[in-house]
Amino acid sequence: MKRYKGLAPLWENVRYFCKWTVISLVIALLAGFFGSLFSHGVILANALCNTHRWTLFLMPFAGLLIVWLYRACHEEKNRGTDMVIDSISAHEDVTAATAPLIFVSSVLSHAVCASVGREGAALQLGGSIGSQIGHLLKLDEKDRKIAVMCGMSACFAAVFGTPLAAGIFSMEVISIGVLYYAALVPCVFASFLGAAIAGRMGLLPEHYELGTFMEFGAAGMGIAVLLGALCAAVGILLCVCLHTGTHFSREKLPNPYVRVVVGSIVFIVLTLLFPERPFNGSGLQLIERCFNGEGIVPYAFLGKILFTTVALSAGFKGGEIVPTLCVGATFGYLFATILGLPTGLCAAIGMSCLFVSVTNCPVSTVFLAFELFGFAAMPYFAVAIAVSFTLSGYYSLYSSQKFVYSKTRTEYVNRKSH
Fold first, then answer.
1. Which DSSP letter does residue 296 get?
2. pLDDT (tens digit, 9 = 90+) per residue, 275-320?
3. What's the number of CA atoms in the CB half-sphere (13 Å) around residue 252?
4. How far is C-alpha 332 from the geometric centre of its chain's CA atoms?
5. Are the CB atoms for 103 and 125 separated by under 8 Å?
6. Are 398 and 82 in contact (CB under 8 A)?
7. Both ends of the chain: CA-CA distance in Å?
8. How far apart are CA 329 and CA 351, in angstroms?
């Protein structure tokens, strides 16, 4: 009898594995498909914006439509990615309307050249799909949290093509210092299936070539530490600007219709000051220029912060991740230009460090660096990511993100981000 009792935990593990293998595949099929469809929509919207530059002047009308859609669906208080995070760490539920609303509003935002990304939208889209499937399958509250993380992983992987990072990110971003290991199998399965579906639907994963760079040694260590520390400061600046801009615009312009129109006008005026429009869109074009060694203005990272702050504060939808990576790439490029260092390497380090400084997810960031840049420069990334994570403090893009343990001491803190 004792022998059979000893087998009970093993049987529970097998049962859990079989159960979540099936559920994660169902979620991944839907989230991967709609995430890929969303990505195609964003690509078409960006092409429209780049081909027909006059779409910029439709920004106030697109903004009004976005505000109206959220009000018509009674989602005025929808907090986007923060709501998805709270659905896992607290008792808030992800509404069914979140998925279609973020899909349509993000595509509209890209079509009028707003400085927004797509990964934040993917987290909301996937989280909403996972939540609704959890309700449909009548999962209990704890299992629904795993379902939400599954959807986030699948959609993130489909949109960005980084399944390793996507599989870990949704578990790591919720509570810093604690990984939700119960979601490991479903999230990893969902992320790889989501990426596979995206590939079948014609989406290629993001990848950047670093070019030549020096072998890692004492000098390389110094470069990584210095750039990691500087990127932490830039990450803090980005978080402060986004949160302050959003708070200021809501305080001064409480009516969302007025807010989005005023924000659109400010954005259009700023765009006209830069005829080449380097800071419009998600920022992928600037990232590519950094890796191709093409010239960019020294203040490019500040310009991208400004344009992203104005767009998101006005009420346009999308995400902050690609603009964040753009800020990192352009700052790394500036760092390399000043010190005469390889631009590709420094741009890649900058992207990695900005990502970790605003998301506080070092494990996911290391995997992201693997998938975006390969393994050759991993010592640079590992050191710089560690430095930037530590020095960025408790700032975050997500106000619902919790820090369970201190970044600098082995103690329990349980505090919200700045």
1. -
2. 999 999 999 999 999 999 888 999 999 999 999 999 999 999 988 9
3. 12
4. 19
5. yes
6. yes
7. 54
8. 5
- Separation of alpha carbons 332 and 255, rounded Å: 39
* Spatial distance between the Cα atoms of 162 and 199, rounded to a whole number of angstroms: 12
Nearest to 66 by CA among 96, 108, 25, 15: 108
Q: Which two tokens stand for residue 177?
A: 């210092």
Three-state secondary-structure class, residue 195: helix
For all residues of the chain together, what is the average pLDDT?
A: 93
Q: Can you read off the two tokens belonging to residue 122?
A: 């993917």
Q: Which of 334, 261, 263, 265 is nearest to 296 (CA)?
A: 334
- Residue 274 makes CB contacts below 8 A (sequence gap 6+) with 303
What is the CA 23 to chain-centroid distance, rounded?
Answer: 24
Q: How far apart are CA 380 and CA 366, in angstroms?
A: 11
HSE-CB at 139 with a 13 A cutoff on CA atoms is 20
Residue 5's pLDDT band (cuts 50, 70, 90):
low
Give, in order, the Cα–Cα distances in Å from 49 to each of 57, 113, 121, 173, 233.
11, 6, 19, 32, 32
pLDDT at 216 over 60: yes
- Side by side, the strands of the sheet bearing 402-405 are 175-176, 402-405, 412-416
